[in-house]
Amino acid sequence: MAERRAFAQKISRTVAAEVRKQISGQYSGSPQLLKNLSLVGNVSHHASVPLTEAVDPVDLEDYLITHPLAVESGPLRDLLEFPPDDIEVVYNPRDCRTLVSAVPEESEMDPHVRDCVRSYTEDWAIVNRKYHKLGTGFNPNTLDKQKERQKGLPKQIFESDEAPDGNSYQDEQDDLKRRSMSIDDTPRGSWACSIFDLKNSLPDALLPSLLDRTPNEDIDHQNDDQRKSNRHKELFALHPAPDEEEPIERLSIPEIPKEHFGQRLLVKCLSLKFEIEIEPIFASLALYDVKEKKKISENFYFDLNSEQMKGMLRPHVPPAAITTLARSAIFSITYPSQDVFLVIKLEKVLQQGDIGECAEPYMIFKEADATKNKEKLEKLRSQADQFCQRLGKYRMPFAWTAIHLMNIVSSAGSLERDSTDVEISAGERKGSWSERRNSSVVGRRSLERTTSGDEACSLTTFRPATLTVTNFFKQEGDRLSDEDLYKFLADMRRPSSVLRRLRPITAQLKIDISPAPENPHYCLTPELLQVKLYPDSRVRPTREILEFPARDVYVPNTTYRNLLFVYPQSLNFANRQGSARNITVKVQFMYGEDPSNAMPVIFGKSSCSEFSKEAYTAVVYHNRSPDFHEEIKVKLPATLTDHHHLLFTFYHVSCQQKQNTPLETPVGYTWIPMLQNGRLKTGQFCLPVSLEKPPQAYSVLSPEVPLPGMKWVDNHKGVFNVELVAASSVHTQDPYLDKFFALVNALDEHMFPVRIGDMRIMENNLENELKSSISALNSSQLEPVVRFLHLLLDKLILLVVRPPVIAGQIVNLGQASFEAMASIVNRLHKNLEGNQDQHGRNSLLTSYIYYVFRLPNTYPNSPSPGPGGLGGSVHYATMARSAVRPASLHLNRSRSLSNSNPDISGTPTSPDDEVRSIIGSKAMDRSCNRMSSHTETSSFLQTLTGRLPTKKLFHEELALQWVVCSGSVREAALQQAWFFFELMVKSMVHHLYFTDKLDAPRKSRFPERFMDDIAALVSTIASDVVSRFQKDAEMVERLNMSLAFFLNDLLSVMDRGFVFSLVKACYKQVSSKLYSLPNPSLLVSLRLDFLRVICSHEHYVTLNLPCSLLTPPASPSPSVSSATSQSSGFSTNVQDQKTANMFELSLPFRQQHYLAGLVLTELAIILDPDADGLFGLHKKVINMVHNLLSSHDSDPRYSDPQVKARVAMLYLPLIGIIMETVPQLYDFTETHNQRGRPSCVAVEDYESEGGNMISQTVAMAIAGAPVPQLVRPSSFLLTSSTGRQHSVFSAESSRSLLICLLWVLKHADETVLQKWFTDLSVLQLNRLLDLLYLCVSCFEYKGKKVFERMNSLTFKKSKDMRAKLEEAILGSIGARQEMVRRSRGQLERSPSGSAFGSQENLRWRKDMTHWRQNTEKLDKSRAEIEHEALIDGNLATEANLIILDTLEIIVQAGPRAAPAAM
Question: Is the pLDDT of residue 911 over 60?
Fold first, then answer.
């Protein structure tokens, strides 16, 4: 053993021993042996820090300053530092769906409305990491981009592909088989092995210059040039990605917040035709959900009358606005179900007589008998004309029908775009929703599968259908309510429907139903705004119909909407004195009490003006207690006052024309004030009705108040039922949210007292009320919280950043706001599980952080906060950092501490500091327009507080609040740590942006106190991960990932050396816990995830200082400390150690290439055969390395060979680590032992089975050394521990490791490799050659025939599959059998018949890359098989060329290695 060479001491530093020491506690001294001092000079003791302990990272910022790169420019220069445009803050205008932005028409708005409008119109504030997509999370090897990168591969020719398929040799095939078939044009085909073919074959052409004398050096150069030419640049493009689900390090960009739409349905109303045409008929459509008993859309009014019919109403109808002429509508359905009906209601002009009488002519007259009944029809027309002239502005209910929507959708099939005709008729056996089709349609579709259940509820893929509705039911005057309608609809679905026995009104209504196109033209929103694209305003529009979802929809508001729907339901005038029978209700929206104060805000129906000042309900003839089914849609003013109200006036309409009888007689009045204590009034109302006009100042009172001297119907009892429903993105309709917003706005405007509910809140009571309203946000309904999420979080953040001044005192609300945010975020997480990504991040919150959140009052181009700022208040101040801090933090620097400890009242810093900071910030404002100044009425505040205010920085306050919180608040914050981490990072970037510090030196960007808070926070969270990983596995997994992403983000903005120290702190906590764990794999797995996320940083290579160890000799030494200092050049004295340090996980390597050191250390520890309990992590750690290397391979920044060499240098220790694992690698070379190597192999067994693939004699001959007269070493392993058992890696893991090895060998600097190979012992060289031989076998070309045969087999996961596959392949004769035997090692071992080795952990997914689909898609096309063979051939070619290159380097190193080997 004294003869062992340097490599044995360095590379074989037994990781196993360290693991035993740390984990099993059985360590008994280092097995390392020192190098013979006569061979090499001094020995460095860098490796004294065990691999299981974290080393101190180099101070990256200092290192970059003290070790400037000699190169001024070029690709290497870009490796040294992050690019200057790495982070950008972008303000993107938000896309507006409509041509004109939806904003209130009023210029004067109250603060809350102003905040809402700003929230819906301001630009998105985006922090963009410009190169983020170059990180490993977006590695093209794990995406569909793999195939793109494989385009243009040259076709490699292999003799195995050209071999005959059997015994039949035809003449024309003979010629083909005699052609040159191998890649180097030598005409030796596999057919030559047949004696018959050999005798009959033509002689080979002579090779030119074969016998010429050529110097060996020239041949070497020629070979070298030929090997280097036409090489494939990206090795990993030829290798399938490891079998992983979505990479854990990928955080996809959140969706832009946008208006919510369900599945959209386009309904076109084509024609409405009755048996007789005597008067205009008015129609409306709406959707109803029977199960939920809810109307799920507003009404769509359409007019299909002929011009002649419309002319009958001319005196009563003003010119029609184009917006009211729509005949097509887009309905949105968020929750499609089998219970949705499309209900069509018809009305006609009021006339004398009840509904039955008026409908009779439509039931008895037929179009065919028009000539026979000519006189009767003329009489009916003239009567109708009279009623239109006199009663044209009143309507009466007429008829209705319903279409079971899902029957139409499911029967119309899917994905066929030609239309289907469906006829709906009440007369058929199946009932009124049954359908008939043209025979051609039925014939074409009879064999298609019809969907059922939830599948049938998709409205996006069915084939457009044209419906002909043939029957209507006449309205029953006493059954007009929605409750009656739901009963009818439920009844329609029964086989013995009551409706079927009714006599129908025959008609023909033609309707087209189809999935709505994505961007329909000529579309109007529910507010009548034109949606892009709208090329011509004169075209008949399509209306978007507002949805009232059947259940809550959790989507934040993004557009201004302020609508009110009024539903008069019933009236009871049974006990009213006098004549009041034909009753209509006139509805007006008033801004005052004068009759002229009615506002033109009521939407018109069809063929009328766009807006009107009044709306009338339909009249039920001679009914004193009518039901109503009207929907009156009102555009609410942005700012409501106490005088805004709805006025209802009840009229008796005189249907018969009598002398001295007015057309309408008022018979009652009632009203609803729009505001009650500042809140919009909505819901169900049962109102008393006054017989007289209301008195002065009635509008501020409710009609329930008994006003003196007024007469009421039925002794002031409630007789009129009405419902108000608001669709508003301004009014929250939640008392807790309303109170919070009202208090915050009162604070902004400094308007006291505040009226909230029945309370008047004075300024001295405001603090308690504000705190209680913040904590009461917990009680608010989740749906309004989500709808107003952006504004709510903005306001809470504002309270943290600018503590308000109340009654001269600064009130600290940081803690209360932090608690409220934690509570809201957790409520969203628990209740909206479907909205989460793979890391448990709620999509609504990620969108808020990414697009909406910004530092308050830091708006670009905004000279002052004013209306543009977030709450633009003048009454905010800040406090000094307090002098007390929790002792638990152990932070004892003497400096000004945080002001945010909630238990401490604020004490200002010295006036001088204060003034200096203000002057500094003002100077900054002048020098940089981006930093908006916060102009305050300073004199006012000085009188209040005796000092000028400054603002806090949100990230500093957030970090401090988090550090000092405890109990349930801390737990809530930990549950959703990602949210606060991402908020903090964005706040930090915005702060740097607005203070022009994005280019400042990183050490001066943030104050020490903030960095201490971050360090304390990271430390406590790491200890939570370590202490709770067994109890709260799911939460700890999320917390671990959140922390990793946070540190990854910090690497882009903070002092990177500081962030490395945080990583080390986390590692230290894990290491200390690992000592005491019997089964460490779970915690090590968490650490691997943590490391993988940190290493996914887009500038991972730069963070590893790739230029530090290979700096030119003249540059300063890359010392980490004086103790480890050494020359950076290859000087004679330290050259050996220098090279060795690059190839081993030495202390300098792990310090300077910090992240790469951690990755390779993890690999070395986990792959070590003695690492107890870590075997299950092999695949995970190998995938991490594979992912990094494949990402570097495809990264355009590293395409230059010189740069790639620097990147490969970070992975040189990988060669040694893989050399140590040779006994554990899957044996791709095995051909004789058909059972394959057992999963556990004893070392001696490995030896006795001929585990040495290449004899040592051959190895020495290659190395150019004399054959040693030595006894063969007793062990192939580097360490001689007797009888150790090794678990064998899976074929997939082994293959991944070997491709990583080849990548490093391909791109590493040849000089460095040569120097290191020179130092290898015979044993080590032997091991390396074995490894290369294994690579040859692993990446051997399998042959097109193999792919085809595999394709023809039915793959089953059974134990005998291996034998069956072997039999199928070996079924042919001759040279083909030879070829198969060569590659049998790859095939026989695969349980699923893949030529790529074991796939025991394969998940069955459709999106796998080409080789995985072998097990799934049995019938591959010829093109796919060709493609697989092409890639396999190119991979085999490239792998063997890399191996040849490496062998050449070993040969070149041989003469120098020879003396040393003796």
Answer: no
